[in-house]
Amino acid sequence: MPFAALIAAVALVPTPAPPMRCVEHVGCRATTPAMAAEPTSRRSVLAGLAVATSFSALPAFASVTPEGYKLKKNYPQDAKLMLDNMRIATELKRGDSNIEEIVKATRSEMNDFVAFYRRQPKVAGMPSFSTLYTAINTLSGHYASYGNKYPVPEKRKTRLQQQYKEIERGKA
């Protein structure tokens, strides 16, 4: 650990307030702090180090969204991309390669899409958004219940494909 991080960790550790002493001629209501320097304990130094190392590891936990699953903040483009990725996730079969990665990326994109566009009145009122939102809920609910490795069953797949066609008609 670099020396600067060690110093920063020690600086983050809270130290007890210095004892207060009464000034004789004013009484005990007005106090001035005693300027006694207390040594830092090993426990407070180790606690500071623990805090510093835990914050330095935070970027390792950040998830990286694949390029084909990032929103462009343009509804027609994002809706088409969302629909294409949902179709890919719906068509996956048990045993397909990287099914879990595709499903995770699609679920993340669905969450981002809904979170971004649901608050925009111009977009949220569109029929294509309403149907897409329903399809997102259907697919997201499937993966929430069955996990990322279990493919969409035929009955649900048929309903989703019908919704995808409605979305295409609504966008055109």
From TrEMBL:
GO BP term (any one): photosystem II assembly
Metal-binding in keyword set: no
GO cellular component: photosystem II
Pfam hit, one: PSII_Pbs27
TM stretches of this protein: none
Domain of life: Eukaryota
Stretch forming the signal peptide: 1-22
Keyword terms of this UniProt record: Signal
Protein's UniProt keywords contain Signal: yes
HAMAP family (UniProt xref): PSII_Psb27
PANTHER family: PHOTOSYSTEM II REPAIR PROTEIN PSB27-H1, CHLOROPLASTIC (PTHR34041)
Protein name in UniProt: Photosystem II 11 kDa protein
Native source organism of the sequence: Prymnesium parvum
